[in-house]
Amino acid sequence: MKPKEIVLAGYKSFAEGDMESLGKIYHEDAVIKVNGAHELSGEYNGFDDFLTNFLAQIPTKFPNFDLQILSVTAEDDRVHVLVHYSADNLDMQSVHMFVVKDGLQTEFHIFDDSHKIAMALNN
Q1: CB distance 111 to 97 below 8 Å
Q2: Total count of domains within the chain
Q3: Which domain holds residue 45?
């Protein structure tokens, strides 16, 4: 599969709540970085860390969370995805950047409007 196909398969797994399948496309040493200075910001090492300390927090922190893909750009091993988030306390766009090597996601950077995220977390 091409990097774009791998990344889009990950969004499908996330939308379906299939964290097992999602975890299989991450390299064991993957680095996930979330920009900003809010409680979910920082660097996560490996999918299990990201799942436990970020993804599992979404339903509680952002009630009725939904993610829609607006556009995808892929070049070589990099995939950039423009997304729209909505939740009871959030409405914004974000850019996700992935690096895919040897069929696995090795890097995932989330470039959110960290001020909007912080405001939502403080409500």
Answers
A1: yes
A2: 1
A3: 3-121
Q: Residue 48 corresponds to which amino acid?
A: D
Q: Measuring CA to CA, which residue among 110, 100, 106, 96 is closest to residue 28?
A: 106
Q: How far apart are CA 104 and CA 28, in angstroms?
A: 9
Is the Cβ–Cβ distance between 59 and 42 less than 8 Å?
Answer: no
pTM beyond 0.90: the answer is yes
pLDDT, one tens digit for every residue, the chain (123 residues)? 999 999 999 999 999 999 999 999 999 999 999 999 999 999 999 999 999 999 999 999 999 999 999 999 999 999 999 999 999 999 999 999 999 999 999 999 999 999 999 999 987
Cβ(92)–Cβ(111) below 8 Å: no
**Count of residues for the chain?**
123
